[in-house]
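Okay, is this right?
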Amino acid sequence: MPGRPYHIVMVGWEWPPTHSGGLGVHCYELSKELTRLGHRITFLTPFSGPFLEVDGVTMRFPGAPGAGGKPASYPPAYWAGATADSPFWNATDGYNSWVGQLDDLAAVDIVHVHDWFGTEGAIALSARLAVPLVMTVHSTEYDRSLGHPWEHILRREQIGIDAASRVIAVSRHLRQQLIQRYGADPGKVRVIYNAVRPTGRLASIAPERRVVLYVGRLAAMKGVDTFLRAAARVAPQFPDALFVIAGEGSEYARLLHLTAALGIGEQVMFLGKVSDDERELLLAGSSVFVLPSVVEPFGIAALEAMAAGVPTIVSKTSGIAEIARGVFQVDFWDVDEFASRIAELLEYPTLRSAMGAQGRWEALREGWPERAREVVALYREARDAGGLP
């Protein structure tokens, strides 16, 4: 691409191999492609690692030698265990203070913050360095709380959206929400979708039992209870089917009790958190992937399933439904329809094969290289708007 390379200070939270969802993966994959384009990144995180290394990316965190600040205990992104008086908020404030005062950065061209965790510090840093601020919104507190937001998180989201020269939303649905609920200027909000990288594991695994898979956080917005209720309708027809739930979160105990109440304990398996390699193995051995979210700003797990050739069912309210045609799209509340689509895919191998092939093509026709170029174009737009070269 034309133009000089940039030094980008990216204010994040998680970074692989330690991540609780798509946020850390997004930052990692985007950074890899930005550096391949010749740009340089200083990535700020509250955690001390370990970090997957990327050429051209320098990791900085509080408490590191010469970094200033003090080590603190931080939970994973979107942790549901915080309370209004939790030490988590003190730690978050400390992280923002450290970000805002960070020096020894050499010349910086862009400050790019992801979600609400570091907005206060990113605003202070971009103002002090006199460079544009770009904010990527991966999800909002309205969505995560299903309409019962925490005011202190809303405030951090709002100030970031207001201060940013340009805002990236990961779906059209999310962009519209930023405009309507946060009063964002439509002229500065752009949609840049997530992507996936092709897996090295191409061959499928044929397990003894047909596997219907969910991967993601166990949170109310994810609709895992719908997955279980649909499983209860399908299980009697397919006694060999195994319904696998991979992930952890605040809904675990409730979902475990629901499984028992539905009488499907022998056909449901809760795996807890899985590694990237374990997730690849699960996808290689699955017959169907289901993402039944009540609301889902994007749904990168579904895109990963499609890329692995697994026929996929998503809720119509997920962002991925905007770009995926080779999937079944179902209303998040329609348990019967989810059950019908699952049964259909389990029953007909030809349908599974056709949907899997179509989904894989759709998931991989554009990837992180294309997304990185879109982000760089946005950086240039932000600098042009500020009169910077």
Observations:
- The CA atoms of residues 173 and 315 lie 13 Å apart.
